[in-house]
């Protein structure tokens, strides 16, 4: 069982946020840092271990700078994510740029910053070389095992995935890059998302270590680093349990000794790209009840909507809901919890058992620290909410102001602008 906790007791939290306009995101600094340190410690046995934080999960400087200060790197998937990470103090191999239909300017900037370029396809070798006019000293490939792995519900069957170099092409990729003069090599994969079964991650490590042996035998290349990607999930539902990462670390260590050290393929740097596991449980969307309505069902309408948190509408995902001031109240009502977007799937919860609610009640949506604010959008001209950090000393810090109507209008040209053709 996974107890859903608030970052402060209800009374303190209500007092802290009483003058802040809802909706907004709140992050618990101490919990994030403690969790990140614990994760690093679990893999302290691994040579030069690093977690490339998945910037896409929460591209908020005040959050990621704190992780970088702990030694984290950055997993970037776009030019702005590269620049954001660089502005937060990173450079060189602490940044991983994972190619995905990559434009020339992203190859170029990643190279300029010294980031590791992780190629997604065999054809990207030529695309990168044409963009750069050379090849980097270090290169990585994203591996797609195809029918050898099943994937999971969220990320899907690897055979259907648009990502990664196929099993039949992977060794050839390394041979090509070796001939072109690349000196350092790595491999990365991502075959799961929000996975709670630790054995799935262990089997990913086994797959990659076996592939290290294959590449060494067939291409005469000793890999410098492996990246197991992300995919470690969090228990969104109270009845779920967290992944046992102590077990996972121990099993991967055994595999490392048997498949890498024993075959003289070490030292081999090990890394992950966790974002959700690091931040997810320690972020909260705070929202206020606008209306309680009775149609064919009972509805609770909030001042937030799927433009603020799209996971329930996109994936049918569960987010636990707490009602401040009503922790001990009996959950004797069944509601659909909705937003104000002109889409019928704008629902945070369907048929959810909650206490009796009324206008003005404050609801807390749990586990929104990753892929929450970051996935927001402006459909229906909805404006993006603010983000706040609950600091380790108990104070509140604004780390991203709310979007204004002027911000929304800033890029618009009401009369159009002439373009030379």
Structure description:
The protein has two domains: 249 residues, Alpha-Beta Barrel (TIM Barrel); 129 residues, Lyase, Ornithine Decarboxylase, Chain A, domain 1, CATH 2.40.37.10. Helices cover 30% and strands 21% of the residues. The chain is built from twelve helices and 17 strands. Strands 1, 10, 11, 12, 13, 14, 15, 16 and 17 form a nine-stranded mixed beta sheet that branches. An eight-stranded parallel barrel has the order 2-3-4-5-6-7-8-9, surrounded by five helices. 39% of the residues are buried.
Q: How would you sum up this structure in a few lines?
A:
This protein has 421 residues and is of the alpha/beta class.
Spans where pLDDT lies below 50 across 5 or more residues:
none
Query: What's the helical proportion of residues?
Result: 25-40%
Task: Give the N-to-C terminal Cα separation.
Answer: 63 Å
Specify the biggest β-sheet: 9 strands, mixed
Arithmetic mean of pLDDT: 94
Q: Please give the count of helices.
A: 12
CATH topology category name of the largest domain: TIM Barrel
CATH class of the largest domain: Alpha Beta
Overall structural domain count? 2
Query: What proportion strand?
Result: 15-25%
CATH superfamily of the largest domain: Alanine racemase
| Cα-atom radius of gyration | 23 Å
Secondary-structure element series: HEHEHEHEHEHEHEHEHEHEEHEEEEEEH
Count the E strands: 17
Structural class: alpha/beta
CATH architecture of the largest domain: Alpha-Beta Barrel
Give the overall shape, derived from the CA principal axes: globular
């Amino acid at each position: 069982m996974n107890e859903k906790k608030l970052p402060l007791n209800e009374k303190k939290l209500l007092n802290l946020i009483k003058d802040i306009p809802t909706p907004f995101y709140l992050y618990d600094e101490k919990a994030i840092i403690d969790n990140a340190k614990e994760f690093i410690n679990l893999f302290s046995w691994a040579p030069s271990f690093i977690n490339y934080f998945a910037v896409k999960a929460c591209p908020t400087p005040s959050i990621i700078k704190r992780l970088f200060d702990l030694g984290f790197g950055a997993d970037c998937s776009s030019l702005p994510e590269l620049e954001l990470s660089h502005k937060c103090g990173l450079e060189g191999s602490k940044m991983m740029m994972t190619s995905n239909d990559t434009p020339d300017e992203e190859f170029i900037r990643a190279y300029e910053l010294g980031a590791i370029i992780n190629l997604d396809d065999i054809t990207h070798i030529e695309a990168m070389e044409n963009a750069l006019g050379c090849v980097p000293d270090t290169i990585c490939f994203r591996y797609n095992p195809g029918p050898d792995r099943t994937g999971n519900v969220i990320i899907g069957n690897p055979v259907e995935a648009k990502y990664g170099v196929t099993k039949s092409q992977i060794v050839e990729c390394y041979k090509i890059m070796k001939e072109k003069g690349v000196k350092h090599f790595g491999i990365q994969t991502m075959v799961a998302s929000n996975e709670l079964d630790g054995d799935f991650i262990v089997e990913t490590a086994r797959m990659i270590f076996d592939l290290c042996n294959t590449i060494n035998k067939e291409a005469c290349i000793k890999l410098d680093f492996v990246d197991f990607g992300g995919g470690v999930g969090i228990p969104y539902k109270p009845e779920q349990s967290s992944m046992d990462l102590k077990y996972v670390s121990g099993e991967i260590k055994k595999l490392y000794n048997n498949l890498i050290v024993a075959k003289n393929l070490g030292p081999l740097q090990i890394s992950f790209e966790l974002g959700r596991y690091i931040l997810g449980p320690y972020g909260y969307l705070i929202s206020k009840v606008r209306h309680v309505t009775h149609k064919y069902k009972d509805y609770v309408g909030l001042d937030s909507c799927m433009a603020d948190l799209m996971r329930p509408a996109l994936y049918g995902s569960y987010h636990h809901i707490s009602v401040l001031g009503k922790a001990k109240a009996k959950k004797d009502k069944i509601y659909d919890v909705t937003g104000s977007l002109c889409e019928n799937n704008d629902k945070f919860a369907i048929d959810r058992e909650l206490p009796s609610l009324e206008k003005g009640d404050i609801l807390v949506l749990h586990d929104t620290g990753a892929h929450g604010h970051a996935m927001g959008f402006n459909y229906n001209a909805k404006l993006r909410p603010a983000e706040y950090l609950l600091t380790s000393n108990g104070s509140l810090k604004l780390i991203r102001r709310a979007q204004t109507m002027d911000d929304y209008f800033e890029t618009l040209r009401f009369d159009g602008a002439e373009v030379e053709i």
